[in-house]
Structure formats: C-alpha cells, structure tokens
Amino acid sequence: MTLDRAVLAFAGIMILLSVVLTMWVSPLFIWFTVFIGLNMLQSAFTGFCPAAFLFRKLGVKSGTAF
Question: Inter-axis angle of helices 30-46 and 3-24, to 10 degrees?
Fold first, then answer.
C-alpha cells in the first residue's frame, strides 16, 4: 500500500468513526468530522498532512501525492 492510499483509507475510517460516534454517543462528535474535513482541505492547499507524516515515519512507501 502506498502512502497516498494509506492516507485516504485512514481519512475514510476516521470520517466513518466520527459519524458513528455522532449518531450513538454524542452530537458534539460532529466537530471531529469538521476537524477531519478542515485538515483534508488544508492538506489539499499546503501539501502538509500530519497523517502522511506519521505513515512515512512508520515506513509506508511514498506515493505520488505525498
């Protein structure tokens, strides 16, 4: 798995997790979804992604985007 796919999979899992937490735990978890969305948006413009940095440190091979 490349770094790009790992980041996209991680983002998808976090979004689904935040939706589940919002539905079954507390509506305030919607802010977790907002945080994820804002992080993805800033990553699109700046090229910096904390998840990509973490996965790179864990040894995931680079892709084309990160």
Answer: 160
